[in-house]
Amino acid sequence: MRIHPLQEMMRRRKNGEKCGIPSYCTANGLALEALMERAKELGKPVLIEATANQVNQFGGYTGMKPADFMKYILDLADKVGMDQDLLIPGGDHLGPLTWAGEPEASAMEKARELVRQFVEAGFTKIHLDTSMKLGDDAADAPLSTEVIARRGVELYKVCMEAYEKRRIQEPDALRPVFIIGSEVPIPGGAQEEEEGISVTKPEDFADTVQTYKRVFAENGVADGWKDVIAVVVQPGVEFGDSQVFLYDKGEAVSLCKKLEDYPEVVFEGHSTDYQTKECLREMVEDGIAILKVGPALTFGLRESLFALSMIERELIPQEKWADLPAVLERVMLADPGNWQKHYHGTEEELAFARKYSFSDRCRYYMGEPDVTAAIDKLFANLSEKGIPMTILHQYMPLQYEKVIRGKLKADARSLAKDGVVQFMLDYEYAARS
User: Fold this and answer.
1) Which of 154-158, 183-187, 387-391 shows the lowest mean pLDDT across its residues?
2) N or C: which end of the chain has fewer CB within 10 A?
3) Strand duo 228-233 + 266-269: pairing
4) What is the dihedral of CA 327, 332, 334, 336, to 10 degrees?
5) What's the CA dihedral at 298, 304, 306, 310 to 10 degrees?
6) Cβ of 428: how many Cβ atoms within 10 Å?
């Protein structure tokens, strides 16, 4: 039986290697192309995840069910010529999150169907997130680790039933690995500016592990613990609208020391976007071996697209402009649901955040027809005109350096995707993969 690439990473770490892996969470086609082209270039696995908000049995905000998203990324892999065996498909925040306002019975019924569809579709890295209160949980008391674990193990059992069903059709199907944990930042980063970030207490991490082990055993699946490779913790990293909390080894030292008591798992760190490459490497060295990143990818893509729009203004007659920034602003104003609760301030401050916020809420609009049409027109305009090296140096100096050295093509599409790659380079440095 093939060994899961993440189990191979665990083996290497047990042998003393300070290795890790970035976990890329995006549904954007250009960003995904960039991820896969890089994996093809390096010949190394790429972990791509979809969240329960993006993809679920009702379509999520992408309109895709798990099988749809799997086909989508496999088709993209074929398009760029990447070996499909390099792809590690993952599901993030899988559980009752999307239906947290409903009573446990209905929310967990939907969560069971959610994880079943993910595993049957071939996703092999599963984050079981049952950390949120449901509609009939006591509002005035914290959710106990016992309840979190009970619900998590319930979903694990559904996943393994789905895996055995999948093996009937595909005997060599990879056995899924699982991520658990109750200290989970909300998907996509903090909604408000924060005074600071509280690092997970070592005793809370230990309680999570011990409780899950016991509940696995009580439910007749004690060996299920062997499928768990990581626990989500808060190591002190986060980002918001305009701020980033960098990793501080000193603040996390007690938590990371506690990991020595449980060598069978590593930590998974969420919201690692915008960390320096040195901070990311320190995290991997300290046991935070799975580094989740999402908004930074489309933030980098948006930066490149906006730079290309500035070049368009210099080279193309105004009546022919795609004017992507203006189109994106118009589309976001027409449908404010995906940014309105996240951005605060005056009208000027809101307009600034819609373009430049670290939370990158504009990623929810990148797939809208008017926006994709503007991107296509931008690429076509610059393809027809050509991009002089002088103006490339003015607006995209990092990409200019790669172009002049023959490492990057000077076409607009390639230049746009390199905005994603710039963030990937930090994670590659950290993961030593």
Assistant:
1) 183-187
2) N
3) parallel
4) 180
5) 180
6) 17
